[in-house]
Design a protein that fits this description.
Elements (H helix, E strand, L loop, with lengths): L4 E5 L5 H11 L4 E5 L3 H7 L11 H8 L4 E4 L2 H7 L2 E4 L19 H13 L4 E5 L7 H9 L8 E5 L9 H6 L4 E5 L3 H14 L8 E5 H32 L3 H9 L20 H14 L3 H28 L8 E5 L14 H11 L3 E5 L4 H7 L5 E3 L3 H5 L4 E4 L4 H4 L3 H6 L6 E4 L6 H7 L2 E4 L8
Parallel strand pairs: 1-2, 1-4, 2-3, 4-5, 5-6, 7-8, 9-10, 9-12, 10-11, 12-13, 13-14
Helix pairs in contact: 1-3, 4-5, 9-11, 9-12, 11-12, 12-13
This protein binds nicotinamide-adenine-dinucleotide (NAD) and uridine-5'-diphosphate-xylopyranose.
Nicotinamide-adenine-dinucleotide binds next to α5.
Length: about 450
């Protein structure tokens, strides 16, 4: 089959950018992204996109109106599709069995039912969302139950993009992973999807596997990445006790080509909508199969991350003479990482909430995430101020929670001059030069290295 019509259900952080790049690279294919959320779809039709992602607007502008469309008309679009990508959210369940650990597959299930109901031909259903291993089996059952006359071939094609670098990750992926059934229809569908990606991805980077390997690999990739962050963060705690320096340790181990350099930056902990959710899901699946030791092993990655966040707040309080009550503390950064406006699972949320509980007067600054921060901190007495200099005026302490380039380039002399003394700075991302700030007059507390204090 030559694919002419792609439909993607879910116009979020994955569906929007992924489909924009497919449309950009495949002008001969129509790509329509559908969503129940009208506001989101409307925003995709303007230049004020619903998500902030560098270079995204440029790509959207190339294809929008040509072969890239955004719509709330789910029925009509499924009816004309050759391929339906499902890119809806799969958050951690908050209720019932598996609450707090398992993935909530309600939205995925609803998509399968809509596809079965509205399809007008045989089609390929692509799991783009991150899903528990063996979800395709459940989808096949839903899709082929009841009345439908059509054949639905389910493929797994997990997305590996990271926010902030999504466009480059999509245009130049390390690999594209496609899993399917090992029978004739499965292999045919895999070939169709390979053909789409071949428009811009070289063959050696397109990896095809069985369905279950593909589904599982996505959870495992995120677990491995998060594990590296937790590993280095665990060592940062030890560095703070021993005068070892985490940056030096990180460099020393990373020069071993077996270890490598990436994902070894100590931090206030990892955030984002994926790492915690996917590890908890992995843990849940392991327990389901009775693999309790395996579950405990991965669970520790999340436990360590929670510890790193709490440890950061504990250090602030202990350093500031055991009380932050009525002291002004400014958080520089609220997004879970730089170059995104996304705050899902951002360590900043926990840190700010704990500081508010301690009755600090908290000010939050961020170049892109204040709208989201307003929502996350709703009901709390926190001041949101985009200008970092204003936000730091009169502060007793500044904590850097997101590694925005703008925070590396700030005039810290000016900030120091306008702060209460003693002035504290807690660098949760190790982006400032501790010695330089100490010389300005700050008491400096990086992650995983000696404090410079007077
Ligand atoms: P998101 O919340 O930004 O977007 C999901 C969208 O799906 C929402 O706009 C929602 O309205 C829509 N939706 C839900 N149910 C629907 C339905 N029945 N019909 C139509 N629309 C529906 O989520 P996201 O961050 O794009 O993540 C989507 C999936 O991709 C998740 O499984 C996630 O784990 C995975 N993933 C995310 C990232 C990332 O960086 N955010 C990276 C790789 C994989
Ligand atoms: C992650 C995966 O990288 C991506 O492949 C997957 O598709 C979705 O989940 P994302 O969450 O967008 O992407 O960002 P990522 O760059 O992985 O960072 C996740 C968190 O780890 C951020 O809070 C980041 O600040 C933190 N991190 C990352 C560190 O603390 N130290 C590091 O060395 C790297």
């Amino acid at each position: 089959m030559s694919i002419k019509e792609i439909v993607c259900i879910g116009a979020g952080y994955v569906g929007g950018p992924t489909m924009s790049v497919i449309a950009e690279k495949c002008p001969h294919i129509n790509v329509t992204v559908v969503d129940l959320n009208e506001d989101r779809i409307k925003a995709w039709q303007t230049d004020d996109l619903p998500i902030y992602e560098p270079e995204l607007l440029d790509v959207v502008k190339v294809a929008r109106g040509r072969n890239l469309f955004f719509s709330t008309e789910i029925e009509k679009n499924i009816a004309k599709a050759d391929v339906v990508f499902v890119s809806v959210n799969t958050p951690t369940k908050t209720f019932g069995k598996g609450a707090g650990v398992a993935a909530n597959l309600e939205f995925i299930g609803k998509c399968a039912r809509s596809i079965r109901k509205y399809a007008k031909r045989d089609l390929i259903v692509v799991e783009k969302s991150t899903l528990p291993v063996r979800t395709a089996e459940a989808l096949e059952k839903i899709l082929h139950s009841g009345e439908s006359d059509y054949h639905f071939e389910v493929l797994s094609n997990p997305e590996f993009l990271a926010e902030g670098t999504a466009i480059n990750d999509l245009q130049n992926p390390d690999r594209v992973l496609i899993g399917g059934r090992e029978n004739e229809t499965g292999q045919k569908a895999i070939a169709d999807l390979v053909e789409i990606y071949s428009n811009w991805v070289s063959p050696e980077k397109i990896l095809t596997t069985n369905t279950w390997s593909s589904e599982l690999s996505k959870l495992v990739a995120n677990a491995f990445l998060a594990q590296r962050v937790s590993s280095i963060n665990s060592i940062s705690a030890l560095c703070e006790k021993t005068e070892a320096d985490i940056t030096e340790v990180s460099k020393a181990i990373s020069m071993d080509s077996r270890i490598g350099a990436k994902f070894l930056n100590a931090s206030v902990g990892f955030g984002g909508s994926c790492f915690k959710k996917d590890i908890l899901n992995l843990v849940y699946i392991c327990r389901h199969y009775g693999l309790n030791e395996v579950a405990d092993y991965w669970d520790q990655v999340v436990i360590m991350n929670d510890y790193q966040q709490t440890r950061f707040v504990d250090k602030i309080i202990a350093t500031m003479f055991n009380t932050v009550s009525d002291k002004k503390i400014t958080a520089l950064g609220f997004a879970f990482k730089a170059n995104t406006g996304d705050t899902r699972e951002s360590p900043a949320i926990i840190i700010v909430k704990q500081l508010v509980e301690e009755r600090a007067r908290v000010y939050v600054s961020d170049p892109k995430a204040l709208k989201q921060a307003k929502h996350d901190l709703d009901g709390l007495d926190v001041v949101l101020e985009e200008d970092p200099y204003e936000a730091c005026k009169g502060a007793d302490a500044v904590c850097i929670l997101t590694e925005w380039q703008a925070y590396k380039d700030l005039d810290y002399k000016k900030i120091y001059a306008n702060m209460n003394k003693p002035a504290f700075i807690f660098d949760g991302r190790n982006i400032i030069n501790p010695q330089e700030l100490y010389e300005i007059g700050f008491n400096v507390y990086p992650i995983g290295k000696a404090a410079l204090e007077r």
